[in-house]
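The freezer alarm interrupted the setup, so I double-checked each line after restarting. Inputs confirmed:
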Amino acid sequence: MLNRGRNIEKGRVITRRMFILAAAKILLFAGISSRLYNLQISDREKYEILSDKNRIREWKTPPQRGIILDNFNKVLASNDRVFQLHLILDEINDFDLTIFKIKNLIGLDQFEIKKLYKKKERLKPWDTLVVSDNLTWEQFSKINLYLHELEGAKPVLSTSRFYPYANDLVHIVGYVGDASLKDLEKPEIKENFVPGLKVGKYGIENSQEKMLIGNYGIKRYEVNASGKRISQIDYIKERQGNKINLTIDIEIQKYAQELLKGKAGSICAMDIYTGEVVAMASSPTYDPNKFTHGINQKDWQEIRNNPLKPLINKSIAGLYSPGSTFKPLVALAALEYGILDPDKTIRCKGHKHPYELYGVKYHCWKKEGHGYMKLRNAIKQSCDIYFYEMARLLGVDKLSIIAKRYGLGTNVLGDLYNDEKNGLVPDTKWKRRALEQSWYLGETVINGIGQGYIQTTPLQLCLMTAQIANGGYKIKPHIIKDESINYKDVINKIKLDQSNFPLHERNYLDDIKVEFYQRMYHKKSNINFVLDAMFGSTNEQYGTSYKSRYDDPKYQFAGKTGTSQVRRITDLDRELDLDTDQIEYKKRDHALYIAFAPYKDPRYAISVIIEHGGSGSKAAAPLASKLIKRIIDRHKLREQFNNGNTSLA
Amino acid sequence: MLRERIQASNYSFLDKLKSIDYLLILLILAIGSISVFAIYSTEGGKFSFYTKNHIIRLSVFFSLFLVLSFVRVSTWYKNAYLFYIVGLVLLITVLFFGISASGATRWINLYFLNLQPSELMKIAVIICFARYYHRIQSSDIQSYKFLIQPIILLIIPCYLVIQQPDLGTSILIAGSGIAIIWLAGLNIKYFVYSGLLLLVSLPFVISVLKPYQKSRILTFFNPDRDPLGAGYQIIQSKIAIGSGGFFGKGYLKGTQSYLEFLPEKHTDFIFTLFSEEFGFLGSIILLFLYILLIYRIINVGLVSRSFFAKLYCFGFATAIFLYVFVNIAMVLGMLPIVGAPLPIMSYGGSSLLSIMLGLSIVMSCKIYNQEQISVY
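Predicted 3D structure, all chains:
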């Protein structure tokens, strides 16, 4: 019985303990349930996002750059398809191994591998390393074949810039290259950047980045845990950048560039009414296509070490004393302010009896002298003595007002080019401020022949010429087609204004600001006088560019030569009177020429500068003459095209 | 009538059939079929290797379960120690002739099956302890003499399993053993003391753990410590379950598992897959099926006459609970990843075999629930 009682007791204990255990089990299961509730109901959204992040990978697809066209819709910058290989760094466990495998696949040399390691050091661990931005099709397909063995490797179909006119346009269009850290700070690049994307480095490519860059696309793929794409679930198409039409005529640009071959210098051509830059050549030049995939060391050194400095865009970044090309403007200023009667006669007596001021001698360029000169003849034959005297009477401050009004002293194309120079039109105030010195009259005298402090860019000279040639009206120079300008209206407006001989309600002799397409002259007859004198300079005997003239009125042009000294001429030089060929290159004068054409009803202005070319009449004027013919030959086509008949091109 | 039935030999086959717990069988079949669907899903909706194998194993082991259910409970009782010894011998065999996979030596190659003796040991310990405490008078239970024996019986297999190394199974074996010692009525103070002792010695225990085990435990406390390494499984599992939501992503539509973000999805993480595809609702239903299963097993213990049957059923129910709890808590990130399969659901022959074996003993307790078992 005792045993039985014990057994009952034992049974009770077991059952009681079982119930305690069961209670614990229920509690723990409740714990699990509440955890499930937390994960699946309370935090569901969070985990859904994480799950999508897991399974969905985004690939940015690079945008195509907008193309750049010339005035006639000829393609100046296009896009080629290229094959690239990118490495997603944070997907790589063993970088060395990956690089080793890639090396074996596409055959990188030791130097390239070193470069990759260097590049990688500069990148953040989550960045993308562009191993190659220009693979051959064979390399690209090999990479694709072995993709599963290459951690983090991403073959990319991208586009790269191609410049069909290579050397002829680099100074205008610019070029593209890898984005630097500074580039990436620009909002338009930052927002649209995709690893491996090329960005504008210079010129239109650089300043019009916002227009050209476009927007990247997004491809969303479902991927598995090892990153393999399973299916595409979304594709937001990339948007190509906008196209940009330039005012450049590539045929003329090419020809200008050809004329400059072997020389250092610039040729600019501009429509005198619309302000369209038709050509803007700078020499020597270089091939922008070499920069697209990173220029190699040898080519780079060749460009850098060229003494003629191909990297400098001479049309806008080259600063030159205008020399005698400044004289028409000096004459205009003197006439406008009524300083002297154009019939006033001054005698140029040659080197033996130079112009003297406070004991300092100022020589004319002509050894034997010009003899008795009136203003028209002085412009035509470019007599320095006449201009010394005229400048002395005019004074530098009045001259600077007119010079600035006609386009000197400020950059022409605004912020289109980050290297465009303002040049310098000196006056007394400037000297006091910048050099903290007072102005000397002698400086005024040499300023009268475009020497001294004054510095201009070739494009400024071209603009100056245009604004005199169009009858003294302010125009809006531009190189990107401006749809807001109705060219026909602009031309009519200026021409109509001129024939009406308007009364002037403003005093044009003051330092006033003139609006676009408004007159800048005080008296119309003064402009006409200067234009006529320039006609003489080219088309009459003894004119400095007489040899380059055309008799056919269709091509007949008017111009002004200039020879800008790069150093002071000593008495010894005068005595030696060496030919250009006999002087050391660096010491030779710059040759300049400005012109407008055709003389009757002018339409184009042109400026030519040949660095160290010697005299303007020999080195610069003949080039201008050749180019003018080409421009006028193409004028009709351009006119028709710009008036909406686009089918002609 | 009662007297007649006491003699088990008098049971007619019809009686036996009548006393089968059909609800228990139904539950086994239900969980079994869910597991087939789940494993089919782990293969991305293809009827291939794992699914085929799982179906074959389920059918074979379920038949085995049915057959063994008719073994008399006294036979189990008589052979309990033998069972334990066989398990121990197999564990020692593993030590010398075991085959290795991913750094652990846990299996014996039996040609038709890679047997994992530690899984069998889970059952062996329960049945052995049930027999041990069956015969001990309640007055003797508290004595050290009778306490020291089961502790030694428990430490030997646990040690052998840890050596494999397999911390998870070892903990589960210990857990089931301790559960029976508890059920037998050992004074609560022993449990409190040893609990405290464990807590104090925890730093020492951790210091002798293998590096991967340490890292698992550290990762448990902070999965973001190494999100691509040790923490990966927990993080991905939580993402899968959490993103399932209330109704789940739908059958065969679990992106986490389909896209292979889930590790070991057909074994230890089968619940994760199920939960991702069937959501909170499905998970709770599955959990409820397990609770029912445990309840039915306890119920068999309650209606059994012998202490052996009671201790065994309650112990086995607790073991099943432990397996389910440890597995689910683990995939939910509530416990460190220790490697514990989900009973019946997880793919794995040995685990399934031992569960079915265990269930067949429960069933035999049910069929022969009036059988008296003499102490000797």
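Quick read of the result. Residues 2-367 of chain B form one domain.
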